[in-house]
């Protein structure tokens, strides 16, 4: 069976929240960090893998029309605290990057489902690149709090783009860094690394986010390891973020039955083995 719609309890918490900007700064030349505070207890409502729709401001140079979906980078420990780590790349994020501390930002959520994680897991393997670091950071924290060992393959253009500290946020992990600059992030090199780590460490689950190349790579590898759980948090262009507009549908194989599912509603987390096709989405 393919991924299911969010539970009624989760859906009931979806609302619009006006948040105060507490921190907002550049992490490196491409990414910014923003911490928001709400009067509502949104941290307790939010689970790893979920996202919010953010209302980016209108500026003289940018007039974003739609809300922008953004994965949660962190929630808590304060009840109203929510954090995002984002790549400043388009009209919406360029406008968002201008927001000042003590300003306000409206967000809608939490939206989507969550990663499947069991506290009994002995070890997990996370394969992250780019903005996928932000999506999986809460999962890494959840695993660390459960005492689960973590192995991370982190891919980036250069060492300066890696953001290892920002990804782990104090969690202990065995990190394997690969880069475009030296060729270690090639499909062949990463596939060999993933196969070696699964063969030697036998993780209970493998997780990834966003990158179509990494998703297809892991799908091939997991064919040889039926006992290893595999999940992907998918990135897709969205309009409403709630499953109404159908702009984010993707094709999945649900036990032999091909189905179009909404990434925002039935996802964004899906089983790696269920994703169909070679369509670019990230």
Automatic annotation (TrEMBL):
At the top level, the lineage of the source is: Bacteria
Q: Which residues form a coiled coil?
A: none
One Gene Ontology term from the biological process aspect of the record: pyrimidine nucleotide biosynthetic process
The record's GO molecular-function terms, alphabetically, read: 2 iron, 2 sulfur cluster binding; flavin adenine dinucleotide binding; metal ion binding; oxidoreductase activity
Per the entry, the cofactor note is:
Binds 1 FAD per subunit. Binds 1 [2Fe-2S] cluster per subunit.
Chain sites annotated for binding FAD = 68-71, 92-93
Q: What keywords tag this UniProt record? A: 2Fe-2S, Electron transport, FAD, Flavoprotein, Iron, Iron-sulfur, Metal-binding, Transport
Q: Give cofactor(s), names only.
A: [2Fe-2S] cluster; FAD
**Residue ranges of every copy of the FAD-binding FR-type domain listed in the record:** 14-117
From the Swiss-Prot or TrEMBL record, give the protein name.
Answer: Oxidoreductase
This protein's species is: Cupriavidus nantongensis
Taxonomic lineage is: Bacteria, Pseudomonadati, Pseudomonadota, Betaproteobacteria, Burkholderiales
């Amino acid at each position: 069976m393919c991924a299911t719609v969010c539970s009624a309890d989760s859906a009931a918490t979806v609302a619009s929240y006006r948040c105060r900007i507490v921190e907002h700064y550049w992490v490196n030349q491409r990414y910014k960090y923003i911490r928001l505070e709400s009067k509502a207890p949104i941290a307790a409502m939010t689970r790893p893998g979920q996202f919010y729709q953010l209302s980016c401001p209108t500026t003289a140079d940018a007039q974003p029309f739609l809300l922008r979906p953004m994965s949660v980078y962190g929630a808590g420990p304060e009840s109203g605290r929510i954090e995002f780590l984002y790549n400043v790349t388009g009209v919406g994020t360029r406008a968002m990057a201008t927001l000042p501390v003590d300003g306000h930002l409206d967000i809608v959520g939490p939206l989507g489902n969550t990663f499947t994680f069991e506290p009994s897991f002995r070890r997990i393997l996370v394969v992250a690149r780019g903005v996928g670091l932000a999506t999986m950071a809460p999962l890494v924290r959840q695993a660390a709090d459960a005492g689960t060992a973590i192995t991370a393959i982190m891919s980036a253009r250069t060492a300066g783009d890696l953001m290892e500290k920002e990804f782990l946020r104090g969690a202990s992990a065995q990190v394997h860094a690969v880069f475009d600059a030296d060729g270690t992030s090639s499909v062949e090199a990463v596939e060999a690394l993933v196969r070696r780590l699964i063969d030697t460490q036998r993780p209970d689950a493998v997780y990834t986010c966003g990158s179509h190349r990494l998703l297809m790579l892991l799908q091939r590898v997991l064919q040889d390891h039926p006992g290893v759980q595999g999940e992907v948090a998918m990135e897709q262009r969205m309009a409403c973020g709630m499953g109404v507009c159908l702009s984010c549908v993707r094709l999945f194989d649900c036990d032999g039955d091909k189905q179009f599912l909404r990434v925002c509603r039935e996802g964004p987390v899906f089983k790696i083995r269920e994703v169909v096709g070679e369509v670019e989405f990230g």
